[in-house]
Structure formats: C-alpha cells, structure tokens
Amino acid sequence: MERRKFLFTLSAIPIVSTFGSITDKFQYFTNQKRNNNTMAKFELPQLPYAYDALEPYIDKMTMEIHHSKHHNAYVTNLNKAVDGTELEGKSLEEMFGTISKLPAAVRNNGGGHFNHSLFWQIMKKDGGSAPTGKLSEAVISAFGSFEKFKELFSNAAATRFGSGWAWLVVADGKLVVSSTPNQDNPLMDVADVKGTPILGLDVWEHAYYLKYQNKRPDYIQNWWNVVNWDEVASRFDKV
Ligand code: MN
To answer: What does pTM read for this prediction?
Structure first.
C-alpha cells in the first residue's frame, strides 16, 4: 500500500464513523439496555429432578432433549416474540386470556413455556399411585372412580390427533378432562374447555418417540407411574 493511501485510510474511517453515528450509537445502547432487561423475563426453569429420574418410564435422553432443547427453544422464541411490544411485562396468564388476538409466535411459544413448566412439576421419581384427600373425593365425584378418570384421560391423550396435550381441568368448580392441539391450553380463550389445568400430559412425538416410537398408548400407560399427585393436589387446592 502507498504511504499516502494508508494514512488516508487510517484517518478517514474513524472520522466518518464518529460523525455519522452518534444518534445510531445512542439508539444502539438504548436497545441493548432494553434487551438486557427483558430477555431475562421468561427463563427456562430447572427440572426438579435429574434427567434420569423418571427411568424406566421416560428415558434420560428424551428428558434431556425435551427440556434443554425443546422447552429452551420455546422460552427463547417467546422472549423474541414479546420483546419491544406492548406485551412486555405481561404474565402468560394475561396473554392467554386474549391469545386469539395475539401473534401465533406468542400463542405457540407462550403455550409451550407454560405447558412444559407445568409438565415437569406434575411428575416425580417414584410417583404414581392415586390422589388422596380432597382431590380424590373430587375425582370420584366427577368421574365415578379413579380408574374411570384414568380411562377418560388416557383416551383423550391417545385420540388427540397430531401434536397436543391432555388435561385435567378445574372448570367452573368442576373437574373435567380435555385435550388441546399444538401448545394450546385451557387458559387460552381459544380452548374448547376453559379453566385451570392441574394435570397435563404432553403427547407430542418429541415427548416419547425415542423410547416408544409410534406406540403412544404405551407411553401414556407408563406415564401414570411418574405422576406427582401431591403436586396436582396442591394445584387443585389453589384454584
Ligand atoms: Mn413437549
């Protein structure tokens, strides 16, 4: 490079960039600050147990991918969808109430984040058995028996076409079994059965395919062995 040209290059570039972008830089730092504040709004929760805790019913690799990849992606994409919009700072429950009027990315990823956060909590190592106390009485009152409830719920999970969830919902003070497509849930204004979900089962293929392949009914049958009925009862008490 010639000396003259070299000096021109060294001096010209900084001058141009300094004079040309003071407002741009201010805007940039404002945006950075806002992003830093809001990107932490929704966070991937830790699992309340190890990835292998639900073996042999739900395998370690499925749990690890499901939590660290799938759920994590819902959280990341939810933050992207909400950041810089009027939804910033709103709770998921608030958004679900008018979800039919919000962007699909908020519905899919907000639902994904909420549903999975519930799903991890209502399972545990050495779970299963049956509910006790008030919840047990409410199940018998609504469905006739615990076995009948399991049959209805398993059927809702098995017959949900494509990807979705089965739910036990408190709707108008009563227990109801329902299912929703995709990442919808009973808190959303689009749900057929609206209410508070206290138990949910993920029947997306990513939830079971590594271990069960196309045998969704086997996954459902085995899943009853890891249900955390204390957690479900606690959610029922709070409705
Ligand atoms: Mn899932």
So the answer is: 0.84
What Rg do the C-alpha atoms of the chain give, in angstroms? Answer: 24
What percent of the chain is predicted at pLDDT more than 90?
A: 83
Give the contacts of 77 (CB within 8 A, at least 6 positions apart). Answer: 105, 108, 109
Separation CA 209–CA 39 (nearest Å): 32
Residues whose Cβ atom is located within 5 A of ion ligand 1: 202, 204, 207
**Which of 140, 207, 10 shows the shortest CA–CA distance to 215?**
207
Instruction: Pinpoint the alpha helices (H) of the chain.
Output: 3-20, 22-38, 60-65, 72-82, 92-97, 104-121, 133-143, 146-159, 209-212, 216-223, 229-238
> DSSP character for 179?
E
Determine the distance separating the centroid of ligand 1 and the alpha carbon of 210, expressed in angstroms: 13
Instruction: Give yes or no for residue 9 having a pLDDT over 90.
Output: no
